[in-house]
Amino acid sequence: MTTYIIRRIMLMIPTLIGITIMVFAISRIAPGDPVSLSMGPGGQLDAQRAADVREARMKLYGLDKPVPVQYAKWFLRVVRFDFGDSLKHHRPVIDIIKERFPITLTLNLIAFFLIYLISMPMGILAAVKHKRFFDRASSVLLFMLWALPSMWVGQMMIGYLCGPTFLNWFPPAGLSSNNAEILPFFPWLLDRFWHLTLPVLCLTYGGFAYLTKQVRAGMLENLRADYVRTARSKGLSNWTVVIKHAFRNSVIPVITIMATLIPALLGGSVIIEQIFSIPGMGMLAFEAVTTRDYNVVMAVATIGGLLNLVGLLLGDIAYAMVDPRINFEETE
After folding, report:
1. Half-sphere exposure of 214 (CA within 13 A, CB side)
2. Whole-angstrom Cα distance, residue 214 to residue 10?
3. 274 neighbors 286 (Cβ within 8 angstroms)
4. Which of 45, 83, 239, 319 matches a 20 to 30 Å C-alpha distance to 67?
5. 8 Å CB contact between 138 and 231
6. Over the stretch 46-98, which tens digit does the pLDDT of each residue have?
């Protein structure tokens, strides 16, 4: 296993480099650039002066160099853990990420925990109660949740649960109330969770619906297997048969989903953070793309690609831990 992990880590390096090359090329091919956007519409400067200003800014940002040269300079900085300065905020990108990443990470870890906390027992129960009322009712509910787009759900939540016209139970935006920093710790914590409730729900319901269906399908397949019938014939309790035997062999597909769920949640944060005005990595990525803030775009893409690769590696390691029959050393 150690040899396999080392090989996978070594393979992650060229894969990540390939991801950064693709994102860098696409960002440069896309129409528009930060200099043009910062200068605004024409007519404010005469043509000659505007050209001089544009040339000076392109040189300042290093955008006057060929694209391969720009990438090489960026890559050499990243090796030293330096993503450069934001073209919009005029601050080091790494400092901005240090401010934004904990917010998105907190949001997604809560959603990740809730997804597994609810979907695992619900999927097991739906399989055990196959074709009964709970199974049919939960299947309809899960199908409805899976079909609802998070953008629409978020807007409906703001309209009906936040606006004064209706219930007005939750704040519509932000992470905390005004002057929340002067509150004691526990009131501040409750205020923070109060603001995060709706964004977390928007991030949770889709993954929860999908994962529950996967757990149910895996459990149904294993509950029909011969080894389960043999376990029942030995007089083992229903709880032992379901949890120790059937569920243990249904975990591998769930691990596959787990390996990609956190990167998927981070991607979904782009929409949710925009809807609820949460200053996390999702909003930062959206702003960077719209303003052509290349250094921030590349930093977010690099972090996202790294998370995907690490998630896949952890998934493979979890396979071997759950199922001793899986031995990656023999497949090399």
Report:
1. 21
2. 32
3. yes
4. 45
5. no
6. 666 767 777 787 787 777 788 888 888 888 888 888 888 888 888 899 999 99
The answer to whether 23 and 277 are in contact (CB under 8 A) is no
Write the single-letter amino acid at 258.
M
Give per-residue pLDDT as tens, 281-300: 888 888 888 888 888 988 88
Phi, psi of 92 (to 5 degrees): -60, 135
Six-digit token string for 94: 């790494």
* Residue 84 vs residues 148, 185, 215: alpha-carbon distances, Å: 39, 35, 44
Q: Reduced to 3 states, what is the DSSP secondary structure of residue 184?
A: coil
- Measured in degrees and rounded to the nearest 5, phi and psi for residue 148 equal -85, 125
Give first-to-last CA distance, the chain, whole Å. Answer: 11
* CATH 1.10.3720.10 given to domain 93-331: yes
Q: pLDDT tens, 246-263?
A: 887 787 777 777 776 766
Q: Hey, where are the domains in the chain?
A: 31-82, 93-331
pTM of the full structure: 0.80
Q: Which percentage of the chain shows pLDDT scores above 90?
A: 5
**Model confidence at 147, in pLDDT bands (50, 70, 90)?**
confident
Residue ranges of alpha helices (H) inside 148-184 are 150-157
